[in-house]
């Protein structure tokens, strides 16, 4: 049965989960109810916090097929638990006929083809998932996704649309006609409403959720306890502080919900036209759309309410919401395999591979182009949260928890404090019983010791530093939507940068062209806009081979295409809607040179003359366009010069791809060398090709021809050389990061050599460093996968490969400077294809390559995310800086993602920089480090505050005394809160240093620092407590005691006579209490100064004026009331009069305490790292971080780095394939 009870859903995906079935148990529920009543509701809270306990306490295990409740657990490192209730969807209201055929296909999660004609086979198959004759489907909802029970796989599975398992042929043959109304209603029942519903929770709901946080519950417990002990003032202060904290938290959470709601609300409900089976057009709300609906895209454009695949016409779409790129994209209809070319009809439709034909939800359709009499149509493939935008919103609504050592250690530290509190709790009870104290007093005092040890103000104190850092970041133009990540940014030791728009300027400038004639390169030419070239095929290709379009009279499109078109100075004219409607075909887009460039053109005398001459003007019509495909690395067009009988095919793209499709005799012999020269200099090179098409190819034939038939046997025409300039601040920022021992990595979609060249130009790779290119080839023809190692630059010409090794191997890598990249002397570079092959077949090499991989070129968006994960797997704290385009996944996955784009795509990134420059990276790391050190300081201070007060109270409990209410209030409010909120104000240090702050609280130096201060404080408190009893004037204090020899009116006596009964009850006023109060008050301030660290991560303490002023003021005040007692103050604080010489003695104790504390803390700071291991007799430890351990291993590995011109082969295929799939998916 156990096998049946535990299954996996979403297998192999990011949100993979284990699923367990449970049924409600009445007797368990009764026991839990009783427990809730007996525990005063505490058990209910515990079960609210722990879903796993809640289900196990109230339910019994059951088969998943018949269960009422499912318990889900993520399979990642966080192992988070969720529970969901099983619901039932009834299909009784729908006839068995047509919709029934659909049921199995949809509900079982395998919508291979949404068939409409019911058959006996389909009717039989419905029983596979439908348990009862009345057709009820069981499902549950988790994180906005519905999971339906699927009898075929005996598991729950989510409902897929037309985006999986549907071939391109079936999209045209089976889905292009539209749905019947019955079918539509049935699908709507299953798929639900098409909306990305981001419900903004009510303030009350958010409040309850926030208030039920364990910390606030503990604060509530503390407040109730203090109120019973008549300690109202501090209770009120904590209540006020908690209210402020809750209100600010509610405000920021609600603001994020509203922002997200507004972001998705723009397209939530619009009216759309859909085609039904009988070709009638029906107008419905977009919320009623279902997969399979054929949607009509209006002429004037719309915001897409779903993901849809284009089957008729073309659209110009602004996809900035998804990609961050503001450049409009041209979308063409999905190629129809049955018309185009036979043999590829079985190709499956996929929104990612066919994204040039897919309109994504939330993107804006600006314009449409269409056939006369035919509408621009698209088939809905995904709706609601299944759409690309829905998935983005889900990742924001349900983010992965940030796992950070500081927070884990903080909980451990709290547990230690709880253990200490437990000891105090037991001691108090035993001591009170032995001294025959009343039961009520014992309960309050023993519980009080817990609230003293675990300070309720801790969460507010810890948050203060982060809030201040967030405010400082805002001032320098960095906005943060995930404040907890600021601390994590203080740990970053590797930053990945996107290249275009991040390290380099956004646009490209045309540097020049290099034409080819008779298979030879001519010398480079700068000016393309001249009379000599105007009618050349080269310029014709530049004029036509692009995806530019006019939007409201302005040319727009890919920046590269724009620069290229602007360089030739031609004019682009598009057909108007009226013209298109008049003709029986699409009016071609026409390009022509300006008149002054045409040699034979003469200035026209008047307007009529000009019109008459028009036909003689040289112009080219673009007949068919094959848009740029990143997989093919090229685009092409079919064009016709006005008056010519034959059409021309023009192609442009990556030089290697273009040269491979040209006649070999037209490609110059030195093509590779010329190309390499340009790419090494950092130029972006594009190749052009052309061929005349046969005269039999008519306009109609061209409209249906496949691109493969056009893109072959071309004549190579030459190269366009574009320059991508580095941003001015790039080299300086990267140098700062290198100095701070922070590795920099380039992740780009650009070509390898260009990327390596830019990496050298910006200082990511130093001039003397070696670059090793890893070229990985997948298994082919029975051969295993292999990696060829090439050394870039001059290394390939070396006749003795062994001569390279001494230079290429790191010169020095000692324990402390393991991360010193400048000493490593070699870098790996690879492209996306190689990276994928290595991930799949060379898993043992991945960590080694991550250690020195610097350039990753031609990387797809998902590969960028995989790279971030691979770096995190070797324990790097990874930052990612991108301009939002294609970087969403990587920005989310990194420990600190910074988007340089202010578009909506930046919602996915924890940080967004207002200034589009990488100078925000060092600023963020500096602030992160300052916030991290602040957190450490505050935590250490709060821990010491707890222990000092705990020990003070424990000492006084031993004589059945305690601190007075106003003494507690003075310590807690005037000293602690003021110090905590001002010590967090230190700004970040002005430059990044090579040293990094510790990542966790549990480190040798940190623990030694805290423990040494605890021992010092306990020692000096005990000294004062026991020494006062040895004084000649000492006696057990009573209202008539007169240690000060105040003869004559006895002010001290008279002032407290009235409170005699009260004093007897609480025994606050005594010599021990006064001594302990003064010494401990100074101790709080001493440790505050000792722990308030400045350089190298924060500005020095004396620059924090609020802190300095607060501490000086408190010192003066306490010193004053100690040496020159003020009767009214003494009365309020319940301090008794002690002789002057004892006051001076206390001052000496305090001064010695201050000297010892600060000296020890400074010593720990200075010599802790090197002396502690030696003092504890430790041998040199293996470094904790995997990458550091690996670096030590590689130092003694003679086979690493690989020698040039060598090959590494994968191991046994079976074994590798068995394990590879895990890597690629994670």
Automatic annotation (TrEMBL):
Question: What is the name attached to this protein's record?
Answer: Polyamine-transporting ATPase 13A3
Give the residues annotated as coiled coil. Answer: none
Under Gene Ontology molecular function, one entry of this record is:
P-type ion transporter activity
User: What broad class describes the main subcellular location of this protein?
Assistant: membrane
- State the encoding gene: ATP13A3
EC number(s) on file: 7.6.2.16
Organism source for this protein?
A: Pan troglodytes (Chimpanzee)
Protein function: ATP-driven pump involved in endocytosis-dependent polyamine transport. Uses ATP as an energy source to transfer polyamine precursor putrescine from the endosomal compartment to the cytosol.
Q: How does it sit in the membrane?
A: Multi-pass membrane protein
Q: Which GO terms describe its biological process?
A: intracellular calcium ion homeostasis; polyamine transmembrane transport
InterPro entries the UniProt entry points to: ATPase_P-typ_cation-transptr_N, ATPase_P-typ_cyto_dom_N, ATPase_P-typ_P_site, ATPase_P-typ_TM_dom_sf, ATPase_P-typ_transduc_dom_A_sf, ATPase_P-type_domA, HAD-like_sf, HAD_sf
User: What reaction does this catalyse?
Assistant: putrescine(out) + ATP + H2O = putrescine(in) + ADP + phosphate + H(+)
Ranges for the P-type ATPase A domain?
Answer: 272-396
Stretches assigned to the P5B-type ATPase N-terminal domain: 13-150
For the keyword Nucleotide-binding, the answer is yes
Q: Which Pfam families match?
A: Cation_ATPase, Cation_ATPase_N, E1-E2_ATPase, P5-ATPase
Compartments, as annotated in UniProt: Early endosome membrane; Late endosome membrane; Recycling endosome membrane
The Cation-transporting P-type ATPase N-terminal domain covers which part of the protein? 176-226
The record's similarity note reads:
Belongs to the cation transport ATPase (P-type) (TC 3.A.3) family. Type V subfamily.
